[in-house]
């Protein structure tokens, strides 16, 4: 089972490791920490098959100061627009740091063009990764470079350890 997966690393003298995680149950999976979770420097142990049938939810975690995010009215997806805090458009050649958060461990990828329906996560090959680069994480960071004379659309898909991904793009 996987009822005890989160107990991995409870003893500060024995940090969570792949071996300790797998010894807690057949559904436990070790996720290496590559995404800034300071409370678990080695990684975390999660219940990989936890009767999960929904894709990861996505929300804004942080954005550079001087910028704001206005969410659209779609309650199921992270859709919206980034502007300067004063309401002006983001200037050309600007870099904007964005941190997104999923409501569970997930791998997220993005594209400037609409991704649409995919048949398997393998179809995502060639899409852009976030700074954690192909790692399961709850935090997904990116610094966007706004090119001259254009807007950037981010079409985002996320997959959880159980293999659930959003069929519609977060934009």
Please provide a written account of the structure:
The chain is mainly β. It is 4% helix and 35% strand. The chain is built from one helix and nine strands. Strands 3, 6, 7, 8 and 9 form a five-stranded antiparallel β-sheet that branches. It has a two-stranded antiparallel sheet with strand order 1-2. A hairpin with an 8-residue loop joins strand 4 (67-71) and strand 5. The longest helix is centred in the first third of the chain and has 6 residues, at 18-23. The protein is elongated and about 55 Å long.
Detail the topology: elements first, then pairings.
Layout lengths: L17 H6 L4 E5 L10 E5 L10 E6 L3 E5 L8 E5 L10 E17 L16 E2 L7 E9 L9 E5 L12
Antiparallel strand pairs: 1-2, 3-6, 4-5, 6-7, 6-8, 6-9
Task: Fill in the keyword field for this structure.
single chain, 35% strand, 171 residues, elongated, mainly beta, 4% helix, five-stranded antiparallel β-sheet, two-stranded antiparallel sheet
C-alpha geometry: elongated
Largest sheet: 5 strands, antiparallel
Number of strands: 9
User: Percent range for helical residues?
Assistant: under 10%
| Structural category | mainly beta
Q: Beta fraction of the residues? A: 25-35%
> What's the assembly state of these chains?
single chain
**Element-by-element helix/strand order:** HEEEEEEEEE
Using only C-alpha atoms, the radius of gyration works out to 18 Å
Count of helical stretches: 1
Spans of at least 5 consecutive residues whose pLDDT stays below 50 are none
- Mean pLDDT, rounded to whole units? 79
**What is the first-to-last residue Cα distance?**
36 Å
